[in-house]
């Protein structure tokens, strides 16, 4: 062949050899975090992100690369970001989604494209039952869990007639279904509000006119702040109960006294008595200047789960990595951590009460509402 | 369903209507006098709420917070008008939409940069908290009654301003024929800035008042802005009377819809399905109202018949 072709051939041979050699060494594991960093739900995404990054930083592990993007709580943007991360950034693991409607848009196609998904928050029932997948792990809870605990606690407290409300979207429907599953009394009214609704005067008037003895609500983020303020101002004296999503650390500072005394259910609280949690709470406060919320603990646990799997297996060996994830051999802020058969947690759910500690509004744990609780959808999962 | 419940919901509809009026009045003035579509009006609502929250937290006084909201929103509005919007009056409506949409993004990020991403705390003052027992035995929130009163006062004030002051004469003349009043020697630039600042101050006031019973967070103004546009379309662009009637109509339709529609569906569907379907239709009800009004009166209830 002529000298020019020979040069090209040699260059090509060298390039091929070089790439073969470089792929033999382990590349850093790439994690794509798609979470809500702007708009009304931003507090949740920021907490998850901060908890996640704190764990990565504390581990000192340099073999992990985290790419973070804001989904703005819009499903179409989340889908675009997921496609970009999987197809051009070539992430090995996706995580971060807060809201169930975005999770439903992203997770099935992500797992179908061979990417692991670790959910630090959203746990829709569709993905826990028939839609479960070997590469999908939920580190937080299945959506119904905290609501079931609220129902169980309400019955334990002797309430017989509940007025229940939630926004009209998958997690809202899961919330009311979950509450009714373990609540043994009657439901006087089941109300679906609009997602993002800020004025609850109409719903409050209905509560006032009903003969309920308790009110259960699931209104995360800004919706919960509005509802709690308006409830406190309405003169209605009925006891409130809800999942932790309306009483997390971020919301409590914005609501103030209006939330005092309200019972809420959560899988985590800052006063859980184990060394991992104590270290987490103090290091989070030192690093970010605020108390962690349950979302931050979920982000922290997700990162530690991932790190524990990385220590046991390489992500290129998908079966080994999957088994390592399933084994969940890490120290969780909740104490012992184990997955059920559908790769959602089996854990204790606690009852907390909102109190004021000095200048800060926070929660104190009262007791256990549900112990070693899984979810009903595991039976439908073929894993 | 008791009379007390219906009466309470009517009051709620009025309260939500007057808040919408505060937003819609500014929007319709600006659209009517200057021909400008201002999507950033919702950002002024947000600026007012944040200014009130920050001031109330720093001074402990809700009243000072309200004053700060008026001042901050008026200042932001005047600045917006002088720096950017002044160049848009001659432009196509689509250019105005594009530019003011960009302003929404700038304001949102600016507020987030200044105040952080978590919602701020703003509470109803002690004197206005709790309920008042009205004739008929209805216990209604004192603060919401105050909102209704403030809204009606503002409506009266705007009416007096537009009908009985020189500024009002110029505003009405400007709506009719912009070039003519410029030819007659009125300082158009200053008139426009004044009109814009008044509209902005009203939006800021609405933000501060509403922020006390809702969440003060970035992006809180956009849903209200959409409703305000529905109100001015129903009421007729440029008409303050239209904005007032339109706002009350929208507020009442929305609130009473949320009350009656699920009940209507419950007549022939079972519990959860009726609740879900009723809630879905209720969220559409104001847009259906807008369509119905436009079919009968294409320029809105009090719009000019051109």
Topology at a glance:
The complex is a heterodimer of chains A (383) and B (306).
Chain A: H1 3-24, E1 29-35, H2 42-59, E2 64-70, H3 75-87, E3 93-95, H4 100-112, E4 116-119, E5 136-138, H5 144-156, E6 161-167, H6 170-182, E7 186-193, H7 201-209, E8 214-217, H8 222-234, E9 240-243, H9 249-255, E10 263-266, H10 275-288, H11 294-312, H12 318-327, E11 347-357, E12 360-373
Parallel strand pairs in A: 1-2, 1-3, 3-4, 4-5, 6-7, 6-8, 8-9, 9-10
Antiparallel strand pairs in A: 10-11, 11-12
Chain B: H1 3-34, H2 41-59, H3 62-83, H4 93-115, E1 131-133, E2 139-141, H5 142-164, H6 166-176, H7 178-183, H8 188-211, H9 221-235, H10 240-266, H11 271-296
Antiparallel strand pairs in B: 1-2
Give an overview of the whole structure.
The complex is a heterodimer of chains A (383) and B (306). With 383 residues, chain A is an alpha/beta fold. Helix content of chain A is 43%, strand content 20%. Chain A is built from 12 helices and 12 strands. In chain A, the strands form 2 sheets. Chain A has a 7-stranded mixed sheet. In chain A, strands 2-1-3-4-5 form a 5-stranded parallel sheet, with helices on both faces. Chain A starts with a helix and ends in a 10-residue tail after the last strand. The relative contact order of chain A is 0.14. Chain B has one domain. In chain B, strands 1-2 form a two-stranded antiparallel sheet. The longest helix of chain B is centred in the N-terminal third of the chain and has 32 residues, at 3-34. The radius of gyration of chain B is 20 Å and the shape is globular. The chains are: A alpha/beta (383), B mainly alpha (306). The interface between A and B is large, with 45 and 47 residues.
């Amino acid at each position: 062949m002529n000298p020019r072709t020979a040069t090209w051939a040699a260059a090509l041979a060298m390039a091929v050899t070089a790439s073969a050699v470089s792929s033999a060494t382990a590349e850093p594991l790439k994690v794509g975090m798609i979470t809500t960093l702007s708009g009304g739900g931003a507090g949740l995404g920021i907490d998850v992100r901060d908890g996640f990054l704190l764990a990565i930083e504390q581990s000192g592990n340099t073999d992990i690369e985290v790419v973070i993007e804001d989904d703005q709580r819009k499903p179409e943007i989340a889908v675009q970001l997921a496609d970009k991360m999987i197809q051009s950034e070539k992430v090995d693991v996706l995580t971060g989604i807060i809201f169930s409607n975005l999770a439903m848009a992203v997770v099935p196609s992500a797992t179908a494209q061979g990417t692991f998904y670790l959910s630090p928050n959203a746990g829709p029932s569709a993905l826990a039952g028939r839609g479960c997948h070997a590469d999908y792990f939920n580190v937080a809870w299945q959506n119904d869990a905290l609501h079931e605990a609220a129902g169980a606690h309400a019955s334990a407290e002797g309430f017989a007639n509940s007025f229940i409300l939630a926004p009209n979207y998958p997690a809202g429907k899961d919330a009311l279904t979950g509450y009714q599953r373990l609540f043994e009394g009657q439901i006087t009214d089941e109300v679906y509000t609009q997602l993002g609704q800020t004025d609850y005067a109409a719903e409050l008037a209905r509560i006032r006119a009903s003969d309920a003895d308790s009110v259960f609500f699931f209104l995360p983020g800004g919706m919960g702040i509005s509802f709690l303020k308006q409830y406190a101002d309405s003169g209605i004296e009925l006891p409130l109960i809800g999942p932790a999503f309306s009483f997390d650390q971020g919301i409590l500072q914005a609501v103030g006294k209006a939330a005092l005394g309200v019972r809420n259910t959560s899988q985590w609280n800052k006063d859980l008595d184990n060394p991992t949690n104590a270290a987490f709470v103090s290091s989070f406060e030192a690093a970010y200047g605020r108390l962690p919320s349950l979302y931050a603990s979920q982000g922290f646990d997700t990162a530690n789960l991932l790190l524990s799997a990385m220590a046991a297996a390489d992500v290129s060996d998908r079966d080994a990595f999957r088994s390592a994830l399933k084994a969940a051999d890490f120290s969780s802020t909740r104490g012992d951590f184990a997955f059920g058969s559908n790769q959602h947690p089996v854990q204790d759910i606690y009852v907390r009460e909102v109190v004021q500690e000095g200048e800060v509004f926070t929660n104190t744990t009262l007791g256990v509402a549900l112990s070693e609780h899984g979810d009903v959808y595991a039976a439908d999962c073929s894993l | 369903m008791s009379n007390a419940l219906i009466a309470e919901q009517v009051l709620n509809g009025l309260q939500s209507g007057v808040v919408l009026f505060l937003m819609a009045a500014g929007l319709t003035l600006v659209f009517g006098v200057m021909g400008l579509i201002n999507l950033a009006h919702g950002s002024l609502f947000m600026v007012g709420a944040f200014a009130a929250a920050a001031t109330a937290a720093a001074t402990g006084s809700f009243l000072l917070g309200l004053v700060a909201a008026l001042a901050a929103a008026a200042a932001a509005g005047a600045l917006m008008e002088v720096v950017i919007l002044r160049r848009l009056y001659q432009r196509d409506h689509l250019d105005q939409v594009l530019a003011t949409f960009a302003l929404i993004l700038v304001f949102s990020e600016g507020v987030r940069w200044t105040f952080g991403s978590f919602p701020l705390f703003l509470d109803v003052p002690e004197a206005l908290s709790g309920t008042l027992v009205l004739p008929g035995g209805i216990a209604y929130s004192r603060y919401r009654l105050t909102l209704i009163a403030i809204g009606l006062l503002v409506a009266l004030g705007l009416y007096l301003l537009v009908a009985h002051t020189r500024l009002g004469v110029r505003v009405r003349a400007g709506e009719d024929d912009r070039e003519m009043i410029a030819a007659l020697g009125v300082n158009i630039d200053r008139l426009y800035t004044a009109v814009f600042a008044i509209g902005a101050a009203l939006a800021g006031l609405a933000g501060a008042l509403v922020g006390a019973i809702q969440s003060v967070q970035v992006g809180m103004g956009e849903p209200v802005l959409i409703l305000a546009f529905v109100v001015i379309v129903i009421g007729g662009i440029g008409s303050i009377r239209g904005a007032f009637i339109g706002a009350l109509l929208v507020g009442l339709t929305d609130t009473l819809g949320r009350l009656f529609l699920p009940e209507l569906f419950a007549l022939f569907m079972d519990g959860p399905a009726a609740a879900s379907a009723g809630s879905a239709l209720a969220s559409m009800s104001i847009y259906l109202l807008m369509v119905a009004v436009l079919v009968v009166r294409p320029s809105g209830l009090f719009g000019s018949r051109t």
